Amino acid sequence: MDAFGTLLRRHRLHRRLTQEALAERAGVSSRSIREMERVPGRGPRPGTVERLAVALELTGDERAEFVGAGHTLFWASRAGRSGRNAPPDEDTSAAGSPLWQLPADLPDFVGRDDELTLVCEALDPAAGGVRRAMISGPPGVGKTALAVHVGHRLASWFPDGQLYAALRGATGDPAAPAEVLAQLLRVLGVDGPALPAGVDARAGLFRARLAGRRMLLVLDDAGGYRHVEPLLPAEGIAVMVTSRLPLTGLPGVTAIDLRPLSGPTAVELLCRVAGAERVRAESAAAAELVTACGGLPLAVRIVAARLAARPHWTVGTLTERLADERRRLDELRHGDLAVRPGLQLTYQGLTPAAARAFALLGELDVPSFPEWPVAALLNVEPVAGAAALEELLDARLLDDLGPDRAGQPRYRFHEVTKLYARECREAEIGRAEWAAALARAAGGWLALARQAQDRLHCDRLYLDDRSGAASVADPRAAAVAADRPVEWFEAERETLAVLVQACAGEGLAVTARGLAGCSADFYDLRGYYADWLRSMRVALEACRQAGDRPGEAAMLRGLGGCLVELDDPDEAVSTLRSARALAQEVGDRAGAAMARKHIGFVLSLTGRLDAAEVELRAAAEELRSVGMRLTEVTTLTSLGFVLRQRGDGTEAVDIIRSALAIARSCHDRFAQAYASRGLAGALVACGQAREAVSEARRAAELFELIGDPIGAAQSLRTLGEALAYEPHRLAEAEQALAAAASLFRDRGHDWGFALTELSLGELEVRRGSADAAGRLHRALRYWTDQQVPALQARTLVALASVAEQADDPGARQLLLRAYRLYQELGVPAAELAARLGLPEDTTSPV
Fold this sequence. Notes:
Blueprint: H1 3-14, H2 19-26, H3 30-38, H4 46-55, H5 60-79, E1 99-100, H6 113-123, E2 132-136, H7 143-153, E3 161-166, H8 177-187, H9 199-210, E4 215-222, H10 225-228, E5 238-243, E6 253-257, H11 263-274, H12 276-280, H13 283-292, H14 297-309, H15 315-323, H16 325-331, E7 333-334, E8 337-338, H17 340-348, H18 352-364, H19 372-378, H20 382-394, E9 399-403, E10 409-412, H21 415-428, H22 431-454, H23 475-483, H24 485-505, H25 509-526, H26 529-546, H27 549-565, H28 569-585, H29 589-605, H30 609-625, H31 629-645, H32 649-666, H33 669-685, H34 689-706, H35 709-723, H36 730-747, H37 750-767, H38 772-785, H39 789-805, H40 811-825, H41 830-836
Parallel strand pairs: 1-3, 2-5, 2-6, 3-4, 4-5
Antiparallel strand pairs: 7-8, 9-10
Helix pairs in contact: 1-5, 2-3, 2-4, 4-5, 4-6, 8-9, 11-13, 11-14, 13-15, 16-21, 18-19, 18-20, 18-21, 19-20, 19-22, 22-23, 22-24, 22-25, 23-24, 24-25, 24-26, 25-26, 25-27, 26-27, 27-28, 27-29, 28-29, 29-30, 29-31, 30-31, 31-32, 31-33, 32-33, 33-34, 33-35, 34-35, 35-36, 35-37, 36-37, 37-38, ...
């Protein structure tokens, strides 16, 4: 058995793999594995060696030894003997010996397994044809390190040597192709009078000198196609090119675009340079440290070197130093290693427009952005903005993320690059100029948010004051927002949250309020309550700072509506009453009416039915008088809920049918869905389960159509309750309720989930299931914590039924507790009184 066969068998057995299992992992035949292990001189192809190394999970020195043995055996078998690399058929240089020009390999190189495999496949001598690999990526991502590492690892593939040329394409002084060719020809023994003049003559001689040789040419840091094309040798010579640009147009090239290292791989690099034991002892701090570096290999190597040079430092010490973003680039330097110079050099090569866009986009500090904001920030036409963006992409100062959920191309900064961009803004663009640029960009986002908001099918909160003008110059962006409103808001969700904060910080209160107000409708629709709460609080404070009293009233109302969804009814009512008072003070009749409607809704949820009815009837009248018909629909539906809770089922049905008629006359799908769901609940209360099923289904379908998951979940819960009244449809009921519970759980809607759990518990009681008690006790704890007496009472009745099924004498006490709660609420409980054997007019059960 040769050295490679011995290593293959040893590693396979160490990992407890059969020959068949290893063959499946590596994508080769088990027969090949057997022959490689048993037949001396059986030389595998280089690509097979790489696949086996990956399948065996080899790293570091083990991998290098394994791959080197495989490559040595391959070349020896091709030459017909078992020695080392086969010598070339003719002299490979003027001195007749191989040329090894590559810089030294990094002993602590980590990761890049997928990229290594791609490069090996591209350069594999057995593949034949053009063998070219193009490695691209932003500054500091490790392009040169990968190319050099590959060259050393595959040295046995190139017995005639390896040539290396630094093209300096990313510098201000790129090497001219004629200069590079002269350098390479001198290495190949051509000098003095034999060195021709001109690029074409030198390129021809270079190709002739390399013809028939087994060599690798590494062209490092190319500036573009014209930089590379004259240097490409004849077919048969393997070529690796590194460049910030992805030069995918080179003939026959395999393109590999490098990204930052993953967290675990970056930590592994930290371990190799600074010491594994030291780093592993502070794993959380190490993870934070590489995150602060953005996974950029150069940055990680720098902090690792600093740790190695300062053994008294902990990892946490350096993590804390990098926590301050304004000092982070200063910390990312060690000796002659630094991140800032590379970025500075690239920045200095930009045109004035691109440089300005770079600085402004960095200060904007949004997670990602589409194309149009570049023109808005620069205050230029969209075409000029697109040109500046393209220049930043070519310089690899921005990452192209591809299309977002709305189909817009989207871009972002690497975190470290963004820090340098913000430095540039502070150094070169004044605060007032920056504020004006922010106002233009944020105004563009506000204009698009209004376009999208107008086409959402949802409960209208009317928090944005449309008297504040906003516009965007790019008609394509406006079309996306109008045509795909939900997808547009989803794509811009994180960015809008950052903009609200940024506008508030710059005193742009009107824009902050508008962005928060438009977004609130979307947040309500999709159940993003944390985003809703955060934006309302930020915009509210901005309005207060600006003395914008109408804006403050609107944001208070939006905050109150959010608190309702977050199950904080007392704080919600208090906030909404403040909103109503302030709206009345500033003469906002519509705002005051909407606040009153919300107050009534909260009171109805918490069982304060008399007060809720008063607020909702008044709100409906006020809304009708100001012409807010759609909000009147939801108000009347909430009033119907109160009436059925009080036992006035017939009136509830009538009122909600009138709300549904208004919704249909307005042709609004959300309002129709909302009223249909409310009608289904009222019909259930009146014993009209079959009609209730039809209305609940219609509501669920409409909510699903308009993209409202919470509305759909609430409708499915109502559907389940209606179906449960028909004994032969209990399975359907359970399916609908389970679907509702899943939607509520996924969206973090605790109230809806608890109510669905109650409905499921009641269903299980009907079935006599033993699981009912546990589910109902969980629901009871929730309603008790939330202080919702009506639902406490309903849950107690269900628990009493469980106890009765088990002949538990405690059932009566549960019924009495429920009866007392209904009496306190003023809710008729004749059926419950009958179960307890009490006269119907009893007000104080004993």
